Amino acid sequence: MTEQKKKIFESANFLKGKNPFKKISPFAIVTYYNPSFIKAFKIVKRVSYKDIPPPFSSGNEKLNGDVLFAAHKNKNLIILNGHVNYYDGYDMNDAAHYIYVLQALGVAKILFIDEVGHLNPRFKAGSVALIYDHINLMGNNPLIGENDNSIGPRFPDMSNAYDEKWTADIEKFLIDKKFRFYPSVYIGVTGPETETEAECRLYREIGADVLGYCLVPENIAAVHAGLSCAAFGIISRELVADRLVEISEEEKLSNRQKAEKSFASILAELVSSIK
Predict the structure, then answer these.
(1) Which residues have a Cβ under 8 Å from the Cβ of 18 and sit 6 or more positions away?
(2) Is the dihedral of CA 87, 93, 98, 103 positive or negative?
(3) Torsion of CA 114, 85, 28, 42, to 10 degrees
(4) What angle, rounded to 10 degrees, do the helices at 164-176 and 249-273 form?
(5) 154: closest CA among 165, 164, 162, 146?
(6) Cα(192)–Cα(196) distance, integer angstroms
(7) Cα–Cα distance between 95 and 197 in angstroms, integer?
(8) How many CA atoms lie within 13 A of 252 on its CB side?
(9) Taking the alpha carbons of 21, 26, 29, 30 in that order, is the dihedral positive or negative?
(10) How far apart, in whole angstroms, are the C-alpha atoms of residue 133 and residue 139?
């Protein structure tokens, strides 16, 4: 057994012992830390990342996040409340670790939610993007190095990285609910510095609509592990070249909260509809 798999099993076995339900849900949400839409779900049990063995060997000790065992109506789910950020100094294996843990727990479908900036001039901050593909400009990914074939193939096929059928079903659901959203290609960069005007122009010209720092390594790991994925972006800032301006943290927070508020009830209904 590889060292990677030993770590995955150690974390998964620990969480199995904390599971408050008879069975672990095959569905999970992975989101940034403490969005307000989490309140749409009943949190039955909370386990801090800091308490889950083994500890990460990279990064810093300010790892914020929890594994939430949650429920909504007649459906149980797992929520990873917080990304393990590459820009905080964690290596790519650490950034993807909990995705593999979800697979080891029996999760088959993941809905990713990331905070993003928009590059498309037709989009608006305070809105929601439905992500159907991505571009990896992070210069790294969690599959570099030894591959454990028992986890996934050496060369996973990324042609359906965001499950086309599931994404189409979500799109139909949103249209039926008259919920406004922006179909988007996501571009992943390392951060944490904000983007220059030239970078924003380049990213838009190569086909990206929204930009973020967390989704790509998590999605790559999920596809590698054979999980079905869909993804949303909560748009908190504008990154349109030729009208790029500095944005305060207060304005960014306000935009994020606006998007979260409109998204909360839709997300809860969507989770209830997932089979």
Answers:
(1) 45, 47, 67, 69
(2) positive
(3) -80
(4) 100
(5) 146
(6) 12
(7) 28
(8) 13
(9) positive
(10) 18
* Angstrom distances, CA of residue 64 to CA of 83, 160, 225: 8, 31, 24
C-alpha span between 166 and 274 (Å, rounded): 9
DSSP 48-87: EGGGSSSPPSSS-S----EEEEEEETTEEEEEEES---GG
Q: Are 183 and 133 in contact (CB under 8 A)?
A: no
Q: The tokens of 154 are what?
A: 């050496």
pLDDT at residue 1 tops 80: no
pLDDT recorded at residue 95: 94
Residue-level pLDDT at 204: 98
Burial, 107: exposed, middle or buried (Cβ in 10 Å; 0-12, 13-18, 19+)?
A: buried
Which residue matches tokens 């909260």? Answer: 257
Phi/psi for 235 (5° steps) reads: -85, 110
DSSP per-residue codes, 159-222: TTSS-HHHHHHHHHHHHHTT---EEEEEEE---SSPPPHHHHHHHHHTT-SEEESSHHHHHHHH
User: What value does the mean pLDDT take over residues 123-146?
Assistant: 96
Question: What is the token pair recorded at 114?
Answer: 């990331």
Rounded to whole angstroms, the Cα distance separating 79 from 76 reads: 10
The answer to whether 113 and 244 have CB atoms below 8 angstroms apart is no
Size of the chain in residues:
275
- Kindly report, residue by residue over 34-76, the tens digit of the pLDDT: 999 999 999 999 999 999 999 887 766 678 899 999 999 888 9
